[in-house]
What does this fold into?
Amino acid sequence: MNIYINPLKTEWEKLLQRPLFSTEEIENKVFPILNEVKTNGDKALIHFAEQFDGVKISHLKVSEQEFIEAENLVSTELKKALEIAKQNIYSFHKNQLLKEEIIETTLGVKCWRKSIGIQKVGLYIPGGTAPLFSTVLMLAIPAKIAGCNEISLCTPPNKEGKIHPAILYAAKIAGITNIYKVGGAQAIGALSFGTETINKVFKIFGPGNQYVTAAKNIVNRFGTAIDMPAGPSEVLVIADESSNPVFVAADLLSQAEHGKDSQVVLLTTNESVAKNVKIEVEKQVKLLPRVDFANTSLSNSKIIVLENIEEIIQVSDLYAPEHLIIATENAREIADKITNSGSVFIGHYTPESAGDYASGTNHTLPTNGFSSAYSGVSVDSFVKKVTFQEISKEGLLNLGPTIEILAENEQLEAHKNAVSVRLRELNNK
Amino acid sequence: MNIYINPLKTEWEKLLQRPLFSTEEIENKVFPILNEVKTNGDKALIHFAEQFDGVKISHLKVSEQEFIEAENLVSTELKKALEIAKQNIYSFHKNQLLKEEIIETTLGVKCWRKSIGIQKVGLYIPGGTAPLFSTVLMLAIPAKIAGCNEISLCTPPNKEGKIHPAILYAAKIAGITNIYKVGGAQAIGALSFGTETINKVFKIFGPGNQYVTAAKNIVNRFGTAIDMPAGPSEVLVIADESSNPVFVAADLLSQAEHGKDSQVVLLTTNESVAKNVKIEVEKQVKLLPRVDFANTSLSNSKIIVLENIEEIIQVSDLYAPEHLIIATENAREIADKITNSGSVFIGHYTPESAGDYASGTNHTLPTNGFSSAYSGVSVDSFVKKVTFQEISKEGLLNLGPTIEILAENEQLEAHKNAVSVRLRELNNK
It folds into this structure.
């Protein structure tokens, strides 16, 4: 990690620039996969499982028997931990489903919004070495709270044609039973177009590699909603004299281990804090199993020393981090001034991994600076808020003439007429 | 309008299909415009104003003097109507800015969400014959409620280099003063990249022609958020024996006059209702100034007679209309069963134009079937909901071991370690 001391304000934007990725090449590889799924359905999925996952699949859908087997394979300790995580995620998300009151904007004109679960949603859970069962909970729990009728989950099978038992168990306790052994871009295609076995959905959620991301972006252009645009995971930590360098280094590394493209930034006003954290990072990284990932992402990462806390808040908002850890004395006060972040971790005993797993907040968050305009996943992401209005005769007598004037001035005569025909009838009575 | 009587269930999807538009050709025209704006900034905007709007502009930003002139040109009647619309839109939207409570998910683990206005947003208002001042209110009012710091509005100038006074007046009463005389794809480019005069924004809102839509889709792919994907406007009306054919016909026509690609659908269980509405539509359309638009869109529109109200609800949800008018006896009851719609108008005295202008609900709504997954514009569209968490020492002692188990099972050792270093310190005290 390089240390930058008091960089010029005019240099901030450049210093905070994230590496650019060209998506065109990957999209060109993904298009034919999507087309194949659209044309050949299940057959294409089985073909791609053989090609990409190295396994011959006969049944795409996970069977009841497989759920039972999985349950037997998950340790009691992990089951208990998953149960606690589930409870906390549920507690935090359940209040997000709002019942809003009816507003009578004019006498006789009643308006309201209703949150309605998106009927059909698809969840994607990546495969690979580490089974991301935490993401199963983070997506399935709000989907259930939102009242989505049909929740389909796709995740790639391993070489034995199986799904990791912890993923199946997490899905089960979250109430998800439609699980399909399909990974990669082909899974996104299946969820977007539908196949014989997998129903078409209206919105797709979940992380994935660059092929999955490209596929999500493509199907989004053709009408399937997606949770949010994706990019590499990242954390920004604000530290001061009160910070424990051991904690701060561990937090930076917990992000750096995600992948080679992960982003890690430390902001502080104190040069010796910067140096101590750097030393501690270099010490701790050696002990990690994923030291290669961590070292690569650390080489792109930055420690920036700034003049004062105001500058720190400005730089943090400019970067708009996915995760923001405020490991300072008056952390709550600083948190209140933050504008752009996906999720904020306040104080010395709030590591990012708490939110990644079990504090209750969602870990599917906007990366790549998107937290300036996007929110993380919540129950909101799984509902549409439909507006309703009901106008009584009296209401239309009150509001009608206003609508007529506005429509006339926008030169939309038929809009005006829809009111006029009614007012004429009401006034003739 | 063709009448379809009891079509087979297997035919519904085909019958409801919207016309497909190829966007590629338009995107190819829009790309060079966006590049030109990115490279040459204001100079490009002035050049395109001459090329597309036929006017030489010296100052892109609307001056204080122009606001004053506009105010003098708007009639007292229109001012009063705009004021009423503003009040109703404000009343309905102000409750959407929520203050959510802090949830203590585990003893010592506090989590909450905060709605924070997107700092910089851009609003696009189309030009053309009809000045869409209503859209100014529909976008500016929730943006102000959300607390967006910087709101920029772009709209094309007329041949005299002026903006329609009603647009300027509506902007003024909504509290918007940064208005720029820029239209089309170039306006979207300016808002997305920034120029010398116009600041870059994080999210762009508002309707537009196919060039504007294509430009929004392109900049969205490169990182600027947009309100929602766009398509032609549409209404679906549910009518029964209690409906007044004159009202229903007027409602259908108020949608049909929007443009040649507008979509209009009528569902009923009663064949004579279908016929009476058709006769009435043919009678009323002749009297409209926009008869050409209306006739073209009517030629693509459908009256469908179905077996019963359950089928009607199924077909309506399958179509997922932008606007849904329920002009029936027990309209509220039917409304409660609807899943997919942008905005619902209940009963015989609730025409769509009420919501278009002044009932208080927003008129920027998901078209093209997107109401199955997207909501209309609301205060939500102008905020990010950032999550916060604060864990006390006690909280981490309670929750830490759970996080360690979960991280370990996902093979993310550094995630576990961020908790372990803290627990070690706490347990050693």
In short: Chain A has a mean pLDDT of 95. Residues 76-94 of chain A form the longest helix (19 residues). The radius of gyration of chain A is 26 Å. The domain at 392-427 of chain A is CATH 1.20.5.1300 (Single alpha-helices involved in coiled-coils or other helix-helix interfaces).
